[in-house]
Amino acid sequence: MKDIRRKVRRGQTIVPFGVGGILDLRGESFVAADIRSWAANGERVESVRLAKKLGVQDFRSAPVIPSGKAAYTTRNGPVYIRFPKWLFCPQCREMTYWRSGGEQRDKAPTCARCAGKPQLAPMRFIQVCRAGHMADVDWRRWAHSRPKDHAQRQCQQIRIRFVATPDSSGLDALRVECAVCRADRSLEGISQKNILKQVGLSCLGGHPWQSPTDEPELCEETPQAVQRGASNVYFPITHSALDIPAPAGTDDHDEMTQRVFNNQYWPDLLSAEGGPITDSFKAIIANQCETSEEFIEGLRRRHAEDAAAMPSTVDADDDLSIDEWAAFSSPESVTGSRTFSVRRTELGVRHDDPDSMQKLAAQIAGVVVADRVREVRALEGFSRYEPSGADSDEDKGGRLVSVNTATRAQWLPAIDTFGEGIFISVDEERLHAWETIPAVQEWTRRIELNLNASFKADRLRGKSGPELLPRFVMLHTLAHHFIRQLSYDSGYNAASLRERVYARSHVRGSELPPQAGVFVYTAAGDAEGTLGGLVRQGQPPNLLETLIRLLETAQWCSQDPLCADSTGRSLANLNRAACHACTLLPETCCEIDNSLLDRTLLIGDGDVPGFFRGVVQAALEESAEAVELQ
After folding, report:
1. How far is 163 from 173, CA to CA, in rounded Å?
2. CB of 451 within 8 A of CB of 468?
3. How far apart are CA 524 and CA 419, in angstroms?
4. CB 592 within 8 A of CB 460
5. Sign of CA dihedral 511, 47, 415, 311
6. DSSP letters for 224-280
7. CA distances to 13, 23, 109 from 106, in Å
8. Which of 77, 48, 67 is nearest to 416 (CA)?
9. Distance (Å, rounded) from C-alpha 389 to C-alpha 453?
10. Residue 519 and residue 368: Cα distance in Å, rounded?
């Protein structure tokens, strides 16, 4: 592909236009190539904890081109390839298989046959498979799939047209026909399962950005025809971690150690694996960091030992949550960090406040506001047609495709963002007593049965732990209603807020501390962070009023009683009393795809007592008394 520039924000190179994602721009369609197309001068993003979890050396973000300098800057960002290659002219309807050699700088493909050279439009349908492959539909084969005579069966011409007739408004009005033998077929039924297999088409086992020298995979999956803008074309797999500083005196965050880790040749030293150029890299790093080669060698050996002892994925997720939970639980232990500034505050309940506020204060163990927090988000890969399921069970979900389709990725694309937030922890003693109620346990067990049967079980277990606890569903629902209420009170819209739920279970016999809290935060690409709206809402009396209002609002939904009485909603029935009208959020807000949500465990309903039912009942009684006094 020649050097054609289009504007994409840095954050969009992770989601939604990361590796494998389709970008529609001004009537053109592109797909993001894998990280082999990234220039070597991508900016490094530091996150030691997340790198250990994902088993990579480091992260890199797309370099930013200064405003107005695009025409004078050499290409150094991610490459987007034109896809689909089959285009058609909106005037003459002739179809063209576009070649990369026809690209012109800052110009869209045009029709050479028509006056005025109208811009060519991409075909609406493409083919994908569960193994993550994607390609153009063989439209010549489609047009000749129902021949009427010998001439049409023997036709080998590739002159085809995409015709639209006014006979209908459905797909049967769209036809692909051969301009030579007049063989044609409408698009009716193209979305049916296995329709491409019936035509004789198979998966090509490749990706649109692969070069002719890349050997395609042998794929036995059945390709499916989907619209290129459909939601099941691209399921990005992302991971995130907060930048939590280690306690004072920890070697990993020693100033000299960090200087070595940040050196541009440190990843090269790690990848050398004791090769002949290892000594050269050590000498260069030692000279630039003004330290000894023995110190560099010690860090390299320790890194190798840590990589060899790296825990499983579930344990790695656990490690991330443990560090973050410890930092929020003891904010006094974190000092002097430029990327993680937190302080403890309170709800501000007085002895003469209403009973509902008193009960709420008894159930909230602590409140911490984060004036500044840094988050790193990394893209591991993607899946197509179905979300990625368990790696050990190929019959569940789509296959995870790495951001490097040629070899194992040594680094991942990522961005770091800065923001602010509010952390709320729940009283562990009261929470444990509530979880032991038989009705609560039975209700959660039913949700867990659906979770076990879901193809997302492994990924969701990475957040909830080996056992789904009632606290996880309750606190996750609380986080969603907290975000919805903050969108009214803080000035941020819901899509700009994110959640982190700390309620995972641990393996039996583990000495890890129990978790019971939520962190709602906003993170923006600007290095200066955000403007203090959440921190203000975390101060008394604002937070107390916000929590009371969100619990009152959670009692009703415009879809009730269908929503409140639901025994299974959303994909794989992983939700109960939760829908778009009351609980669900934009996908960017939720860390587990709007799953495992239930208002019943939050406020109670019928025989199932919600954790905050006492607060809600007291607030209703106070409201009724206020009405009677009027």
Report:
1. 8
2. yes
3. 6
4. yes
5. negative
6. EEEETT-GGG-EEEEEEEE-PPPPTT-GGG-HHHHHHHTSTTHHHHHHHTT-TTHHH
7. 20, 16, 10
8. 48
9. 11
10. 9
Cβ atoms of 241 and 47 closer than 8 Å: yes
The Cα-based distances of 532 to 162, 521, 526 in angstroms read 54, 11, 14
Left if phi > 0, otherwise alpha if psi is -120 to 50, otherwise beta: which for 572? left
177, 183 contact by CB (below 8 A): yes
112: Cα within 13 Å, side-chain hemisphere: 3
274 exposure class (CB count in 10 Å sphere: 0-12, 13-18, 19+): exposed
Q: Report the mean per-residue pLDDT for the chain.
A: 85
Task: Tell me how far apart the alpha carbons of residues 105 and 327 are, in angstroms, rounded to a whole number.
Answer: 50
A 10 A CB-CB count for 204 gives 18
Side-chain-side CA neighbours of 626 within 13 Å: the count stands at: 7
Whether 127 and 136 have beta carbons less than 8 Å apart is answered as: yes
Give the model's confidence band at 228: pLDDT under 50 very low, under 70 low, under 90 confident, else very high. very high
Count of Cβ atoms closer than 10 Å to residue 136 Cβ: 18
DSSP run (H or E) holding 31: strand 28-32
**Amino acid letter at 547?**
L
For residues 402 and 422, what is the distance between their CA atoms, to the nearest angstrom? 34
Q: Is the pLDDT of residue 528 over 70?
A: no
Which of 129, 80, 59 lies closest to 414 in space, CA to CA?
59
pLDDT attached to residue 248: 45
Q: Are 257 and 266 in contact (CB under 8 A)?
A: no
Count Cα neighbours of 447 within 13 Å in the Cβ-side half-sphere.
31
pLDDT digits (tens, 9 = 90+) for 403-461: 998 888 889 999 998 899 999 999 999 999 999 999 999 999 999 999 998 888 888 88
CA distance 263 to 283: 12
Distance of CA 174 to the CA centre of its chain: 35
In this structure, what are the phi and psi dihedrals at residue 537, rounded to the nearest 5 degrees? -70, -20
Find residue 417's DSSP bridge partners.
Answer: 375
